[in-house]
Amino acid sequence: MLPVSAGNLSTSLILFYAHNCKIKGRIPNEVGNLSSLLDLDLSGNNLVGSIPRTIGNLQNIQRFNMSDNKLTGFIEDHICKLQHLGDIFLGQNQLSGSLPNCLGNVTSLRQILMGSNKLSSNIPTSLGNLKDLVVLDLSSNNMVGSLPTEIGNLKAVTRMDLSMNQFSNRIPRETGGLQNLVHLSLRHNKLQGSIPDSMSNMVGLEYLDISHNNISGTIPMSFEKLQYLKYFNVSVNKLHGEIPLRGPFKNLSSQFFINNEALCGLSRFSVPPCPTSSTHRSNRKNMLVLFLLLGIALVFVPTTFVFLWIRYRRGKRSPQQADLLSMATTERIPYYELLQATDSLSESNLIGSGSFGSVYKGVLRSGTAIAVKVFNLQLEAAFKSFDTECEVLSGLRHRNLVKVITSCSNLDFKALVLEYMPNGSLDKYLYSHNYFLDIRQRLSIMIDVACALEYLHHGCSSPVIHCDLKPSNVLLDEDMVAHLSDFGISKLLGEDESNLYTKTLATFGYIAPEYGLDRLVSVKCDVYSYGIMLLETFTRRKPNEFEGDLSLKQWVSHSLPEVVMDVVDANLVTPTDNRLQKGLDVVAAIMKVALDCCAESPARRTNMKDVVGMLQKIKIQLLAR
Questions:
Q1: Residues designated catalytic
Q2: What is the CATH number of domain 426-623?
Q3: Any binding-site annotation on 384?
Q4: How does pLDDT run across 488-540, given as a tens digit for each residue?
């Protein structure tokens, strides 16, 4: 049992962990005496009875976890007194009743996990006040009623699981405003009506499950633009009409559409073909293709003869082939082959877009996968960016820099042909619920980036300042080795130069103070940005999400070393880890290195040689755990 004397522990106690200790009995009321407590974890035990009202006395608490016990009774209003509460974990219990309406007043809440209980009633509309809420899990309960329209106010939410309840009526169209939502599960409810077309505005959506409901109508064709959607399950509903074909639907399994009223489409979806309207559309499409081919033939054949005659007369290469600028390589890829490799720069091959252009995946005739960075020539700055990358990258060779195969340039087209990175960016792995990096992987990636910067700053004849370090510019190959990319605003330092002035401003949140104020850049600016990115990698908090005088650096520095648990990414060191303290010690050491990189004064910042050495020592300690 948890003794009553637990309440007599020091009132300065800030952490109380008793996870998976086989504790039985009730939670004593005396726990409420621990007035300085920031984190209370009693999860994974055999605790019974109700949550004591005295929990409301823990005015400073930021996180409490009582999940995976046998707690009963109601979640009472006393929980709403905890105005600093960020995370509440009460899942896997036997709690009943309704959610307190006052819970919407605890605006500091970032995670609410109450799945697998016996909660009833509806979702209080006041939850719409939780503007910072990131995760909402109310799955596997007995909740009823309509989904409130106020759910659309949860602009920060990335994961919402309301499955296995008794919710009815329509899916509110306001859910379409949740543009940060990655994971949404509404399966096994009693929802009716049609799928709101507004949900196609949820541009970050990767997982959507509305199976086992009473949804009717059609699947909106606008869902074809949800380029990140990987899982879409509408099975066991009353849907009809044609299943979309483009975008994410090209890769979806037929099992996601079974047991509906009258869905139709391609045979690979295991549904009947659509009626005559599709046939007419197909015939019309065939006629258009035929006329198009005839038109092309009428234009192309004479043009070909003229082209061959000009080439014969001039003895020059084809003007339609791009002017290829060799990047210290013998490989040359013609312009027309780049178009062929990327399916004419089709949207389906688009990897990402930036300030100066877009990047497309391509496959050469040899089978080699490439990434083609095409610059937007409507922007004057794109010309300079292209020239800068050509100038800088032509002389760089390092395993942790993205390899440039060649460049392609003429009056109407400028592109860099890059080595393809199949695992995408660090940003994707940090902020997507479909991917996860443990401490060792994150540390290895950041050591790779540090090695790249050490080479740029100390291993080149002329030091190179990257100027735009951030997770989206760190790309991962098939072995999860990190490669630094995007040198579009980088700077080369000449002889006897230690810094220079620039008019180009990098990404907000990662900028060193002297860079943002005086536009003065040096290798120390990269060190500062690296430190911010190192903090971001282990906290999973973006530097630009802080407001007022608080910054990511200040938030972390105020919590070290005593309460590193408050700032570390909760997915990294969970209370179920029997080596929790060692994990926290490793993360604290990493964050100490990061803060040394982020010193306000450039002179006090660590250089990248020392950063590599310190992080490699930490990695050795981690592997020896």
A1: 468
A2: 1.10.510.10
A3: yes
A4: 677 765 544 455 555 555 678 888 888 766 667 888 999 999 999 999 999 99
